[in-house]
Every structure is written in C-alpha cells, then in structure tokens.
Amino acid sequence: MKRGAALLLFAPLAVSCAPKPEASASAALKLDCRLAFDVQSARIKAQPNLTAAPHEAAEPYWFYSTNDGHASYLITEPGAPGHPAIMMQDATNGQVKTTGCAYGNKRGYQQLLAYLDSLRTWTRR
C-alpha cells in the first residue's frame, strides 16, 4: 500500500481533534463482524455520506471516508494481507479508534492493523 494513498484517507482523522457535533459522527455505520464480508462491504459502500479515495490499481484495497472526516474504512481485495478484511477508524472526542473484522488470514489482518496504527503516529520530516 502506498503511504500517500493511505494518508489521503486517514489524514482527516488525525487532524479532526477539534470538537465537532457528535450527531454526524454517529451517522457512520459501525462494523458488525457477524455479517458476511460481501454483505458488510455493500452496506458500508451504500452510505450516502461516504466518499471513495482514488483507487490505486496496483493496491488490493479500497478506502472510503465519511464526508465529515469522522470515520474511514479500508476494504481489502484479493491479494491483500488478511483478505477478506474490513477495518474502520473512528475519530470521536479527539481519539482515533481502529476496529475491524478479520474474515481471512489472522496474521495478515494483524499486518493491516499495525500499518493503520502506524499511520496515526507518522509525521513528515
């Protein structure tokens, strides 16, 4: 995954520490790992307040963010570590929380989780 593409998606979460109305934050769908991967992916993509990041053809991920910047999703494609997997980052009360559903390889899912968590602390030098 190119760092730039991921930062484009998750950067709004890192800078969204200013208090914002919680009503819009609650509008983002929470993950329900009891749902099948395909069902949950379709449910996420159907949200009216969601924007897809530009897709890099060489990367097996899709990134989506809510228009208010409170929530972002990563949905894997075949070839991605841990596929199938869905991850969500939620920025509420100045904190960014990463959750996800590991439908596939658990070790690959842990790689994805570590990568997303590293983006929260990454700074440009």
What is this entry, summarized?
It contains 4 helices and 5 strands, in the order αααβββββα.
Would you mind describing this structure in some detail?
The chain has 125 residues and is of the alpha+beta class. The protein has one domain (3-121). Helix content is 33%, strand content 25%. A 5-stranded antiparallel β-sheet has the order 1-2-3-4-5, with helices on both faces. The longest helix has 16 residues, at 106-121.
Topology:
Elements lengths: L2 H12 L7 H4 L11 H9 L4 E3 L8 E6 L4 E6 L8 E8 L2 E8 L3 H16 L4
Antiparallel strand pairs: 1-2, 2-3, 3-4, 4-5
The arrangement of helices and strands along the chain is HHHEEEEEH
Q: How many DSSP helices?
A: 4
Report the sheet with the most strands, covering strand number, pairing sense and barrel closure: 5 strands, antiparallel
The number of E-state strands comes to 5
Radius of gyration: 14 Å
Inertia-based shape:
globular
Strand order of the largest sheet: 1-2-3-4-5
- Beta-strand fraction estimate: 15-25%
State the low-pLDDT regions, or none: 13-26
Output the structural class: alpha+beta
| End-to-end Cα distance | 20 Å
Query: Could you estimate the helical fraction of the residues in percent?
Result: 25-40%
- The averaged pLDDT comes out at 81
Total domain units: 1
